[in-house]
Write a structure and sequence with these properties.
Blueprint: E1 4-7, H1 8-13, E2 26-29, E3 45-46, E4 55-60, E5 65-69, E6 72-76, H2 81-95, E7 100-102, E8 109-113, H3 120-124, E9 132-140, H4 145-158, E10 165-172, H5 179-199, E11 203-205, H6 215-220, E12 228-236, E13 239-248, H7 251-260, H8 273-282, E14 290-293, H9 300-307, E15 311-316, H10 319-335, E16 346-350, E17 365-371, H11 384-405, E18 409-424, E19 427-429, H12 432-436, H13 438-441, E20 446-448, E21 469-471, E22 478-487
Parallel strand pairs: 10-11, 10-12, 14-15, 14-17, 15-16, 17-18
Antiparallel strand pairs: 1-2, 3-4, 4-5, 6-8, 6-9, 7-8, 9-13, 12-13, 18-19, 18-22, 20-22, 21-22
Helix pairs in contact: 2-8, 4-5, 8-9, 9-10
Bound molecules: S-adenosylmethionine.
S-adenosylmethionine binds near residues 265, 268, 295, 301 and 316.
């Protein structure tokens, strides 16, 4: 049996730059289907595997060596890349999908390597912080129309049932581009490609302005549902990743959930829907289990939890808020009945968290996910006296919540909660009790669990303080400090210190 071996390092000597794969890899090319671990599309040269990275298939074009390693995806990180990356990590953890992560192209991308193809649209629908997911199809050391036209032809073969609509985006990491010139060059390349594609009866979508397509443009063009999208991202000076867009955030559905629900409460602060999804993911709670929001407001977290198929418990000190949550969750169920599992339960009641918790079964909650009290709706720069008062009350409420909830939470359950922080003239004030005496007030069966995934030390996490992460628009005075506690065996607390 004849076998060919291709060593990427040797190819590098031919003038190609494969540094995106970073380690030297030997690829074994199979010459017949029997040799393959899986049966890839027959248009591809078939390949076997190597010790550390099995390869499904291998293709060598004039312009690019294309490698379909165990499925490598680029998750585009949202406006708060640290939260987005942590969320993706926790989503994979809580849904049990094995993956390796790489932040080398942060803050733009998180690379995710998995053994199997991902159900990308279903995943992105549950991720608040990821605007787009693309499958990496190769790397190019130059950016030319010819190279991309080759790529498009291959993608067309790879996904033969898709409509011949291509989206082309040339996105650059901020670092390396002399921008005005590049935008012109990129546009010229785009137009050459568009003409070529049009000749074949295909349609191409190009960026309206600049070099990168927006998520909205991709979504409106029907990518990725009806189209094959090629996204070219410059990640290093002479290295371009070519990707096929496999999922974009459904902006219409988000807008409907945010704006069409009957009850809103801008006064006490409503959690953006996307952030509610992030909170649920941070709790690492297994799908289909039970979530409690003790400060439910108008029910943003409750609604997202219902959509994701959890049993939901929600309460608030204010009877008015409880009614609003009921109205909004009923609206959701009636408006999107096909998306909601009718067997799942929703329990709503009035409850001051500083009073003994009632109505909940002992040892029944898999997670508490909540945006706590954020203060009395401050719209001015707060004085230090005001901030101090808010922090004192926050500590009291948090203490009451943890003591109260302890016996209702299952072992290993997480409590994810947002508390207020303030921005005053570019300085951030975070609750002092978090730094000073958190351990003193924390009930024995809880520890703080960092939101920064273990061994992740990228610069995007520089705002994280003791594993807590901040969320706030650049002009916001009141920010949310997100904390995750974990319920542990009281006797084992010393192991966590
Ligand atoms: C920032 S809002 C939550 C908003 C909610 N996440 C939403 O999207 O609508 C905080 C909520 O905490 C409630 N609250 C304040 N003190 C409380 C307490 N002691 N016990 C329970 N709920 C309380 C308020 O009524 C308010 O609805």
């Amino acid at each position: 049996m004849r076998r060919d071996f291709v060593v990427l390092n040797a190819l590098k000597d031919n003038g190609r730059d494969f540094s995106c794969f970073r380690r030297p890899i030997t690829y074994q090319i199979a010459k017949n289907e029997q040799e393959c671990p899986k049966k890839p599309d027959k248009k591809f040269v078939l390949a076997g595997g190597c010790q550390s990275l099995p390869v499904l298939c291998y293709l060598h074009t004039k312009h690019m060596v294309q490698l379909l390693l165990n499925m490598e995806y680029a998750f585009f990180l949202g406006s708060n890349p640290a939260l987005s990356a942590a969320e993706i990590h926790d989503y994979f953890k809580r849904t049990g999908i094995a993956a390796d992560f790489d932040l080398k192209y942060a803050p733009k991308l998180l690379l995710v390597k998995t053994a199997n193809e991902l159900k990308s649209q279903a995943i992105i629908d549950n991720l608040g912080g990821t605007p787009m997911i693309a499958r990496i199809i190769g790397a190019m050391s130059e950016f030319s129309a010819e190279a991309i036209i080759d790529e498009l032809a291959l993608e067309e073969q790879f996904i033969p049932n898709k409509k011949p609509v291509f989206s082309l985006s040339f996105d650059a990491l901020a670092s390396s581009l002399p921008d005005s010139k590049t935008a012109r060059d990129v546009r010229a390349v785009g137009i050459t490609i568009k003409k070529n594609i049009n000749k074949k009866g295909c349609r191409a979508v190009l960026p309206q302005t600049g070099t990168a397509l927006t998520t909205a443009q991709l979504f409106n063009a029907g990518v990725p549902e009806d189209a094959v999208g090629i996204h070219v991202l410059r990640v290093e000076k002479n290295l371009f990743l070519a990707m096929s867009v496999v999922a974009v955030q459904d902006i219409t559905f988000y807008t409907r959930r945010d704006r069409e629900r009957p009850e809103a409460d801008p006064g006490s602060g409503m959690l953006p829907v996307k952030l509610a999804q992030m909170f649920i993911n941070f709790s690492c709670v297994a799908p289909g289990t039970k979530i409690y929001d003790p400060f439910c407001g108008v029910g943003t977290i409750a609604a997202e939890a219902i959509l994701q198929g959890f049993d939901v418990v929600a309460s608030d000190i204010s009877p008015r808020q409880v009614v609003r949550t009921k109205t909004n969750t009923d609206w959701l169920k009636n408006t999107f009945p096909n998306l909601i599992d009718p067997r799942k339960t929703v329990q709503l009641f009035e409850q001051d968290i500083e009073k003994p918790l009632q109505n909940i079964e002992v040892d029944s909650l898999n997670a508490i996910v909540s945006e706590g009290w954020l203060g009395p709706g401050i719209h001015h720069v707060p004085s230090s006296f005001e901030m101090e008062n808010i922090f004192v009350k926050t500590q009291r409420l948090l203490n009451a919540l943890l003591n109260n909830a302890e016996r209702f939470l299952k072992k290993d359950a997480s409590v994810v909660i947002a508390i207020p922080a303030f921005r005053v003239e570019k300085r951030i004030f975070r609750a002092p009790f978090l730094q000073e005496n958190l351990r003193k007030f924390l009930p024995k069966s809880f520890v703080v669990e960092s939101l920064v995934p273990e061994n992740w030390s990228d610069a995007i996490f520089r705002d994280a303080s003791q594993g807590m992460m901040l969320y706030g628009r650049p002009d916001a005075i009141v920010l949310r400090d997100i904390i995750r506690f974990k319920k542990i065996d009281k006797d084992k607390k010393s192991e966590y210190r």
